Amino acid sequence: MEDQRKDSTRHPALNYHEFPKPGKLEVRATKPLANGRDLSLAYSPGVAEACMEIKATPQDASRYTARGNLVAVISNGTAVLGLGNIGALASKPVMEGKAVLFKKFANIDCFDIEVNESDPHKLADIVCALEPTFGAINLEDIKAPDCFIVEDLCRQRMNIPVFHDDQHGTAIVVGAAATNALHVSGKAWEEIKVVSTGGGAAGIACLNMLLKLGVKRENVWLCDIAGLVHEGRTEEMTPQKAEYAQKTDLRTLDDVIEGADLFLGLSGPGVLTAGMVAKMAPNPIIFALANPTPEILPEVAREASPGALIATGRSDFPNQVNNVLCFPFIFRGALDVGATTINDEMKIACIEGIAALARATTSAEAAAAYAGEQLTFGANYLIPKPFDPRLMGVVATAVARAAMESGVATRPIADLDAYKRGLDASMIRSSLIMRPVFEASNQHSRRIVFAEGEDERVLRAANAMLEETSDKPILIGRPEVIAVRAERAGLTIRPEVDFEIVNPESDTRYREYWETYLNLRARHGVTPDVARSVMRTNTTAIAATMVQRGEADSLICGTFGQYLWHLDFVQQILAQDGLHPIGALSLMILEDGPLFIADTHIHSEPTPGQIADTVRGAARHVKRFGLTPKVALCSSSQFGNLDNDSGRRMREALAILDAQNVDFSYEGEMHIDTALDEASRKRLLPGGRMEGAANVLVFANSDTASGVRNILKMKANALEVGPILMGMGNRAHIVTPAVTARGLLNMSAIAGTPVSHYG
To answer: Which residues are designated catalytic?
Structure first.
């Protein structure tokens, strides 16, 4: 089985490393270098100014260079993964991979450095000599006991964090998993018996951490290839192992495993047998972390002890003890406060943050990344998943706070709450731009009805609403279906307890709803039978009727089906008292900032008046995000150079806007590149009415607007917020089937602000 698994991954893995270009890293400039002036600033003579500032104030290196966000991953290749001493050069793919993880999970820049030096003292000299280049050092894959020597020497001599991840990263994640395993099993640190196999760097570090968490030294039994570590033993001994020597006549793992509460394996395959598991305490905790084959396979352990709580080092079993849960975020926090070291307080803060996150409701992003897995805290979910975007904010902030409180921070952060918000925004891309909307929404308590209440994305959005906002979700759907799906998704919310349910199959207001619909549509071909049928089967119509009756303030629909189908029922019921759809506005969040696109759905070929309405509506909504609207009316015609249909309609729309004396900047008609490039626009139309790049693009037909929107999503990795339905007084919004749970939460915040709040 293992051979088949290796064969199936070998070629994809090699192709991944070779194509489309060799390796996993490249270096990119962060500043422009397009002309002579840029060159003079980047290098001579301008670079001298930065040099002299750093000469005068060395701490300013983090201000004027990349050092404050730069980590070195350093290895001599003497203990690589499960491969052993393969040498520095062969270790390079692993170190490159570590650098990629730093960048992906914590936006930390990283150089991998592979050193041909087996002498630990000489290796420490090399690492220490690199201090001017880096803000922190990550030692990796150095054999024991050399790794202890190298780290100790570097920590003594360097004034930046030095962290041997094989030791401390593993220990932190084991500590978090064990914390939650004890929580599930109802056991306490000071009471448990721990049996460990593997006296290497990771094994010793894990035991040291367990002692700091409360395990009693006399309750720890360490075994290795030579058996139990005991007083008087000389074979395969190191000073680190000797710290755990027991005074006993017992000699083997089988001798000491009886009654053990926690087995910690960092050794090799098959070390722990089913017979040994059967001897352990009830509901034992088994961390079989050897890679690629654990000390015991989970199914074998669970057959021997059905209540066992099991973790491994592999991603194809639950509870993977993966260092990526720790090292990016502990370095992020350490770098951001200019920590001089990573101390025990910071490590324990990291443990507590990771453990607490697993006990919280799973994020929508993690659920999407691990579709099909049940991410509910318990025996099979003791630690969070690496792709949970909340790890950065929770863990790095906890580490930064601990560094400040323990006195090792040289650049303390004044506002840790703001710091955490910034970290969250860097991981959840919509967070920063949506903040003004959420803040406005939280000033009110609005009732938001979701037409497709049985959809898991809706359930996650409703759960997040209850946790993060003051709005009240109402879900349309069958209560039993919603309850089952919420539980399956690992959500704690339940129908009629945490939120209101409207059951289309059985609701006491059914007659009132169909009569309301009939009164509105009786002269539009709707009969009593049709009205009754619609109110049993059409959840969008039910949601709109609730809003019309004042039982909800706004509705969100569209997680399945065609946009205009939903719009038809929204218009039938809610397009009254001057309300009518004027356009759909999509916010596209790009790497260089937000860009709004309209009209993406409503009018296929809008009239000049409809275009002008769309421009005004878009400008109003852009202000909701705390931005100054700059609207470009886009066409294949540019400032009157073509007499075509879109050009004529855009020019007429401009005339309408000119006559209305609006309070925002707009210009047209023009090409998209002209709208986004001020220099180009000034060459073509000196003295134009708009300064800077446009942040709103309004098109002359929905095909073009929708096409641009989708191209930005697929080729520029844009994140969409919307579509925002303009003209309906914020009483209804129609999303698209591609919407995520986070997208629905964002739309609920938009719907959660009364239209009177923003004009």
So the answer is: 98
